[in-house]
Amino acid sequence: MNLAFRAASEAAEHQRSDGGKGRRVVVDLGNESQVVHVPRFLLFEDSWKYFDYLNKHIPWTRPTIRVFGRSHIQPRETCYVASAGLPGVAYSGYKPHAYSWDDYPPLKDILDAVHKALPGSSFNSLLLNRYKGGNDYVGWHSDDEKLYGPTPEIASVSFGCDREFLLKKKPSKKFQGKKGEGERPSKRPKMIEHPDQHSFMLKHGSLLLMRGYTQRDWFHSVPKRAKAEAVRINLTFRRVLE
Ligand SMILES: O=C(O)CCC(=O)C(=O)O
Ligand SMILES: [Mn+2]
């Protein structure tokens, strides 16, 4: 798809609530997958206070993980916080210790703000990531673990260095459409064309929500960026099913 067409079609899919602060962009990825981007979710100054607190107080670790049968040091630091009594989370052969919300009270304030911005949401766990520079990254993956259910909402709040967040459609397993026999082109329902890659610049104090079938149908990543020298902290709030 050429870039001009892509820009026009994305603009048509976006709903912009207002032009300034609190602007919310809803991107329809097709097939009941959506992303909501709120570039200025938290106030700039408050966001630096959260950044400094998290940078200093979270017990960051760089665990060894297994990818395609080989051990690697995870290319970013991490920590996990969850409500008591939830089933444990595991990814890439690593089972993080679940810290308590009570240990880090500012996380509860951020969680409250997320719940307020997303009526009906009720997150009970949080994966934190710290990218110490442009060599730290998260590769292509989806958070499609069974314990999040078939249509998980994942709310991502970012602090510090701006980093690009990419979404790429998974290859489809089967041919999904069926041509009606003897149907004339003019009678076919109008199809909205959805690009199969998207990019979001996740800025200091921003919120990005993935919902619907985004984890089933799309991969996401935060690639290496030589010029992103400063530290970035990202929080992904999730709901573990009980
Ligand atoms: O850092 C980000 O923006 C995304 C992190 C992520 O995808 C994850 O922790 O699963
Ligand atoms: Mn993820």
UniProtKB/TrEMBL annotation:
- Lineage, top-rank taxon, reads Eukaryota
> What region holds the Fe2OG dioxygenase domain?
122-241
Instruction: Name the positions where substrate binds.
Output: 68-70, 144
Basic and acidic residues composition bias: which ranges? 178-193
For the ligand (2-oxoglutarate), the binding residues are 129, 131, 141, 220, 232, 236, 238
According to its UniProt entry, this protein's organism is Escallonia herrerae
Protein name as catalogued: Fe2OG dioxygenase domain-containing protein
GO terms of biological process kind: DNA alkylation repair
Family from the record:
Belongs to the alkB family.
Which segments carry the region annotation Disordered? 172-193
The terms under GO molecular function for this entry are: broad specificity oxidative DNA demethylase activity; cytosine C-5 DNA demethylase activity; ferrous iron binding
